Fold:
Amino acid sequence: MEKSIKIMTIIGIVVQGLATVFSLLLMVLAASGVMTTDVSTTVNGEVDPVDAETAAAIFTVLFLSLFIFGIISIILGAIGMFKASKNKKMSGILLIIGAVISGNIITFALWLISGIKLLTNNRSEERRVGKECRIG
Structure:
């Protein structure tokens, strides 16, 4: 595995880990009632305020879903990094899936590039091996 792929994957794991911890912190703050916001809905020009319990529930579910997707994304990225030397195709697919569900633009870009590089490097190595066999 190239060093650039490994470095980009590690940076993505660290950034996604920080984002996941941040979403966990916001989920706890929303669930405990420390973080309060004024949420309102507008229907046909009429503004209807939402009570605090409903707003807290909305934010708790939002941050919980971000936390769950973050954990799944970190697991996929770690498995993709560790399996890259054995099975590049599977590793590239895992990194691309992890990038899509990460919800983080930095992790998305890094893992998408790494996944594409793993998928394309696999094909170029197969071509080189095929050419060496025909020449030799």
Q: What stands out?
A: Residues 52-82 form the longest helix (31 residues). The two ends are 26 Å apart (CA to CA). The beta strands are 40-43, 46-49. The CA atoms of residues 17 and 100 lie 16 Å apart.
